[in-house]
Amino acid sequence: MMLENEGSLHMLAGGLRVKARVQHPQVKPRKDRQGWPWVFRYWSDEIKPDGSVKTLRKYHAVGPSKGDGAITKKQAEVERDKFLGKLNAATIEVAVEQAAATGVALFGEVAKMYVEGYLGRENQIAKPTRVKETFYLTSYIVPKWGGIRLHQIHPKAVEDWLHTTFDSWWTMHGVRAIMSRVFYYAEGHGLWEEGKRSPASKAKLGKKRHKFERRILSFDETARVLAHLEDTTCLIIEICIATGARISEVLGLKWRHVNLDAGTIKIEQRVWHQDIGRPKSEDSKRLLGIGDLVERFRAKATADGATPDSFVFQQKRSPGKPLWDSGVRDGLHQAAEAEGCDFPGLGPHSFRRANITWRQQVGGSAIEASKIAGHSDLEMTGDYTFVTAERQNELTRRIQAKLAKAASMNQEKRLVNPPALSSRAAESTSNLVHTVPVTPTVQ
């Protein structure tokens, strides 16, 4: 007889079947052992690493029938029933518990559980994350690893596949993380040994590298680019510069998020491909100061006839809908190209990096920059921080100026107070003064 849920387990483990039995063997004393222990024989299904099931006939002793600590046959039968209770139940949990010890579940079936379970929680998982992870699982990960059991996936194989399949270091990093999350999900459901690292997490990616040159525009370049932008795009970029907000957060602003009296905006949502949802993380929900942009916001609110629930930046052809970021990016590239400072990778996010860098240059601490940016840790803030050649030279000149000042002061001290001679040098000088040289007489 097949279990009610055995079909699910059979699919999960790719051929694994656990038989359902109701066992009730007799309890007998084993006279060839000391104490004549009460024993019974039972059938046990053991899952092998290849996913097949081997049925074994085993003995189990429950206590002595003679001597110290002897128990009656009735007591032995009670102990037998306790032991066989779990085997007789033969539920899906029993089989899954056995599967966890060997990791025989198919990666593809666990990935399906992960997509339907974790990624399927729309109220907890942001849409960009769901779309990205589902794409990589469907297009790359499951086609390659879906038919392989968890325990058969090895770090070297994952490492080789990542390096031959993807060119971008960041894509490899992301795909490896998705695979690791599938293993972590399996662990949470008893299909992978608890506390055991996933083979994907052990794959080495090599030195971190970026597809495009990592740079930001200088203050001068930024000012020239801003002068080329039309009013709406210019204000959006200036908000990114002033606050370090992501473009999705800026386009998600509604007028109820803007406090002109306090000079702040509140990040409570974001827009991604016209989907309105929660910010990237809980740390991304934050209050940001807009400085001298207050009057620009005030003028825009008046011109647009702003209402609390209207977007600050709306589509002209479809009022009430947030602006697409593609138009902002196109306008930015055109302006940068006109000024001869365009580069691959330039976008609104470049000015988020600029904000984090410049905020620290003008005296802000790394912790302040991290909090304002909505980063969860300082390591990420450090990755966003650029130390430009101009900044390096500025800091270098400060060091050089301090060194030059110290050298000058030291020289002045030497002129005012010449250094005293050592005792040996003074003695030599004294001898030179008091010794009269003997000049030979010429006959």
Q: Which features would summarize this protein structure in a list?
A:
single chain; 443 residues; mainly alpha; three-stranded antiparallel sheet; 17 helices; 8 strands; disordered N terminus
Notes on the protein architecture:
- With 443 residues, the protein is mainly α.
- 49% of the residues lie in helices and 9% in strands.
- It has 17 helices and eight strands.
- The protein has helices spanning 6-12, 73-89, 92-102, 107-116, 127-145, 155-165, 169-188, 219-228, 231-243, 247-251, 294-304, 325-338, 348-361, 366-373, 378-384, 389-416, 423-434; strands at residues 28-29, 37-47, 53-64, 258-259, 264-267, 270-272, 275-277, 286-289.
- Strands 1-2-3 form a three-stranded antiparallel β-sheet. Strands 4-5-8 form a three-stranded antiparallel β-sheet, with no helix packed on it.
- A hairpin with a 2-residue loop joins strand 6 (270-272) and strand 7.
- Helix 8 packs across helix 12 and helix 14 (366-373) crosses helix 15 (378-384).
- The longest helix is centred in the last third of the chain and has 28 residues, at 389-416.
- The termini are far apart.
